[in-house]
Amino acid sequence: MKNNLILSLSILSCNAFAYDYPDEHGKCWILDGRSIIQKCLIASGGGAGGTFTKFVVNKKDYYIEESNFCDEEVNCHILVGNSYENSKEARSYYRSIKNNKIIPKWEHGAWNCYQQIRGKMHICYSTPISPPKNQS
Asked: In the 8-state DSSP scheme, what is residue 131?
C-alpha cells in the first residue's frame, strides 16, 4: 500500500512540470531560397528543462527546442529540425516585422528567427501578441 502511494505521487509530480500553451495561428517564414511568408499553426509548451515550439506549414513540421539552462553569457542551447530526432544546434535572433531586417532585440510583433549552425534550416515565426519565450 505504501509503495503504491509513493509510486502514484511520483507519477503525479513528474506530470506537474510539463505544460502546453494553447495553439496559436501566426505567420511562418521559411528562408529556403523562395522565402515565402505563410500562415501556420504554432504549438508550444515546456517542462523543467526547456521549452519546445512546433510549426506546421503546408503539412510539414518544424521543431525548436530551447534549454532553460543557460551559461553565464545567457547563451541557451537551441535545437532546430524537421523532427526531434533530426534536430541540429541553432542560433536565435530577431527581424523587424516592417522590413524583415535583423534587429538587436525583440520589439512588438518582431520575427523570432532560428538558423541551424551546421545545417540549412532557417525559420522565423511571428504571432499577433506573444513575445519570445526567452525575452529578458
From this structure: P
